[in-house]
Amino acid sequence: MQIPPSSHLAHIIKHYLILESNCNEPINYRLFSDGNPGMVFYFKTPLMQQGADQAYAHPNSFVYGQLTQYKDLVSTGKLDILVVVFQPYGLYALSGVASVELNDSLIKLNELFKSNAEDLEDRVLNENGIQNKIEHIENLVFKKLAGSSYPDNTLTGALKLIDNSKGNISVAQLLHVLPITEKQLERRFNQFVGIGPKRFTAIVKLQYFLKNLQRHSQDVKIADAAYESGYYDQAHLNNYFKKNIGITPSAYKINNLLAINFMQV
After folding, report:
1. How many domains is the chain partitioned into structurally?
2. What angle, rounded to 10 degrees, do the helices at 197-215 and 234-245 form?
3. Can you name one GO molecular function term for this protein (predicted)?
4. What distance in Å separates the CA atoms of residue 79 and residue 24, rounded to the nearest whole number?
5. Could you tell me if 157 and 140 lie in one domain?
6. Which domain holds residue 172?
7. pLDDT, average across residues 127-144
8. What is the distance of C-alpha 184 from the center of its chain?
9. Considering the chain, what is the average pLDDT of its residues?
């Protein structure tokens, strides 16, 4: 289930996701990038993730940066998860930390938000009703925005052009419209978003393709959805899909999805 944020915070919070599963048996999941950082709260059993040496359970609440590679996770019990999906630059606006430094990171709330974090976690995890939980989150976000650093109009303009084109725009086309050099644009994307404009544009394009796959009935050919999304080379799409998601488009289409970028494997 997807819930929109309050209108006065829509420039920082993209939406909220409620992810649920009543299965008590172990299930393998895969999470891959949607181009946005976020914040997570577990109301039941946290997911397990494989670390460098051993698997570990996620904390009850945390923030995560951009994903540069897919992550394999395992549920060991019922799931009830609230995900706060930020705008691409939202985590930088709240933390002041260069987004590129948070890539592939999972950071406990108290490490990023200090004294405010424990109170927020307690309120969200123990409050009744999803709207009340969201209200506590938005109160903290609103407070953290005081004196925070926002990207300039050039970067937000680039993000809007990319979204409006559904990812079908080149860096050269962006530079033709925006008053900025390629190196400057690259630096700003890394600082505010965490990845470069070319990579971010490719993620946006892929997300629109996945939405097209979901919107079409099962008998619609993947090639048709790909063409509609701007992929004119099926082999290139398959290779990109395998590299960034680890499976083929046809395997994704029949998968059991909890979210567009979170699926069973």
Report:
1. 2
2. 100
3. DNA-binding transcription factor activity
4. 9
5. no
6. 153-245
7. 94
8. 24
9. 92
Residues 6+ apart with CB under 8 A from 122: none
- Residue 223's pLDDT band, with cuts at 50, 70 and 90, is confident
The answer to whether residue 261 is domain-embedded is: no
- Are the beta carbons of 132 and 140 closer than 8 angstroms? no
Same domain, 12 and 139: yes
Question: According to the model, what pLDDT value does residue 230 have?
Answer: 92
CB of 169 within 8 A of CB of 177? no
Quick check: 9 and 142 in contact, CB under 8 A? yes
- Taking the C-alpha atoms of residue 26 and residue 209, their distance in angstroms, rounded to an integer, is 30
Q: Contact 99/89 with Cβ under 8 angstroms?
A: yes
DSSP letters, 245-264, are HSS-HHHHHTS-EEETTEEE
For 151, the 3-state DSSP assignment is: coil
Q: Residue 166 is part of a domain; what is its CATH number?
A: 1.10.10.60
- Tell me: do 165 and 223 sit in the same domain: yes
Model pLDDT for residues 141-177, shown as the tens digit of each residue: 998 887 777 788 899 999 999 999 999 999 999 999 9
The residue assigned the tokens 């051993």 is: 54
